[in-house]
Structures
1.
Amino acid sequence: MGAIRGVILDIDGTLVDSNDAHTHAWIKAMAENGVKVPFEAVRKLIGMGGDKLLPTVTGISEESPRGKAISKRRKEIFLREYLPNLFPTPGAEDLLRELKKRGLKMVVGTSATTEELEPLLRVSRADQYVESRTSSDDAERSKPDPDIVQAALASLDLPATKVVMLGDTPYDIESATRASVPIIAFRCGGWSDRDLHGALAIYDNPAHLLHDIDDSAFA
């Protein structure tokens, strides 16, 4: 690949252990609006944008009055009930510190909304290391479409061949691949190696990548 100069960072499931929390917030918001959905039906869709998740699991458009009510309530529940109890994934800040030490430019590329993004960055301490942020509010289409990754890549002002993305879901992999950005995947988001097929490499979590960093794409 040549020397890597920039990194695009997913947040949920990659730097913050939040995928189950997002699932529970969706389920509660749906239930309050008369829609009962099993945990696994939602969990397997975490990582794609909410505008895609909601109609996929319920058939309700996010732009409909009911869809807007569910999405708004989901955000409220997540921010109030779940986010205060979240923790970074193992080794998240240590990895970011090492990447910064190596002179790499880092930008966030996430399906989270702007309102959720800043507190998530504080949980992971990524706010101390990233140079810019791109969220679902900065892209016309959410993951797994490539728009968010393309926006993050543009903010780095680097060719895709000099950038690696860190993610944890099949939707990260599809989004990065469609943007021609190589991606390293983490298992800590809850997906199997089979689900993460197409990643440049797969590690348990940020700590695992940090341990093997001199044998990785960052060497």
2.
Amino acid sequence: MEFKNEELIDREIQIAGLLIQHVSLKQIAEFTGLSKKLLTAHIKNMMQKIKATDMNSLINLLEVKFNTYK
């Protein structure tokens, strides 16, 4: 799997940071002030942008993406 050229928006980067810390979706929604529906929409957008097929692959790919910038 590889990333599309599309970049994540700021809100998606915030969510990504929480996902790779294994914060629950409920906690992410509470922390960001997003509804579960909007949070789910952001996650679906991230999955499309980085071609993830499920939540585990999304988290793994996000870890790779953000570790390359360290």
3.
Amino acid sequence: MIDRHALGERLFELLRGLVAIPSPFPPGDTAAIAGFASDFLERVGYRVDRLARKPGIVNVVARLGAGPPSVVFNAHADTVGVGERAAWATDPLAATLRDGRVYGLGACNCKSSMAVHLWLAEETGRRGPPKAGEIVFTFVGDEENLGPEGLAYLREAGAVRPTTLIVAAQTRNRLVTEERGVMWVRVSARGKAAHAGAPDTGDSAILRMHRVIAAIERDLAPRLRGRRSANGQQSTLSIGRIRGGENTNVVPDHCAIEIDRRILPDEDFDAALDELRRTVDAVGEPPGTLSIELLTGTPGFSAPEDGAGVRAFRESIAAVTGRPPERLNVVGASDGRYFARDPVEIIVFGPGDGANSHQPDESVPLDELVDAALIQAGVVARLLGIRMEST
């Protein structure tokens, strides 16, 4: 039986080592912390690759065994910046344990999960590879930048091909099995510039965009408000940015809005984009005066309730905590979104509360790290047969 106190001490030791290595965005350099993780993983018996497409953003892929099934754990190694140093009561680069909480930059987001994953790798490495399949640990950069050089790059390069992907996030050890997709779209309007003293000689792009916005709010938004998933997720649309015009005394010849559209897992990504196009086209503006551009986006995902990973988490959470798993619907999107189009079971899980990250005195309860470690050890045992004393 794994002793919780000893496990807590080991997890704090690992987290302290990680917090001491700066990896803030900007600039997002993860070379040093990737080196720390790589050396550790090689020592405990893993085959390790360091992969980088952009200088400084180094990603670690460590594997034991050979898939399938391929159980892939992921955590990001970059953090936000320190911000105003005087706002911190503790040294942000020296993990401090106080009243059962660990304080430090990244202690919650996401180095707590890194520490848990390193412990899992250490424990599984002692027992040798699974009889069938592989266990893989990935530590990536570019997450805080929402960029393509981290887990997205590993997928693109074929460095990981998960059967089950477990993405670390601050869920307070609650289970996330569903995530909405994200679509960012720019709608542009063109008009004709003129002197503001004679506005009728021009064609205001801002007024044209006003008609588009009114149509979106009148025709599309009510439909989206009526769409919910079985788990209670809401289909949404938000206009987050508007830009137009050159000067107050000039009728504007250009205007653009940028839209954030959150898509339910059972909504088709392309159909959602087409729905927005039809709404804009229905405004009836002259041909060529409106255009729509997809900026970025990925569909949503939903792990099946009878999936091997979901079952393993349900059983392990109940075994460790004595309670059924608590589910969480998240507002944001994790790096799991990059695999949403693939036949992958995606689960988001980890210690910490997002409300305690990205701010001075960021912290995480040490007991949550212990529970997260024991729960995920149980998941590994159930999925790959690598049993530890507590599982």
4.
Amino acid sequence: MSTGNFANWDGNVMDIGPIYPFVGWEGLMVVLAVIFWVGWHVMQIKMENRQVDEETTALSKQGNLQKALDAERPIDRT
């Protein structure tokens, strides 16, 4: 890809052509980025929910869930 000769700045800008790659692909790239972004969030939520469920099940089996909840102390904001 050539960006043209800039030795003479009196030329027509339209004759130079595109000065960055993938001209015309901006819309598709935005759509793909949004799909990737939303997909990543969905995957992350599923993984975190699975981890919370596994930890809750493990604590419930040992009877430590209620102990862990009882041991929580509210933050004293005085």
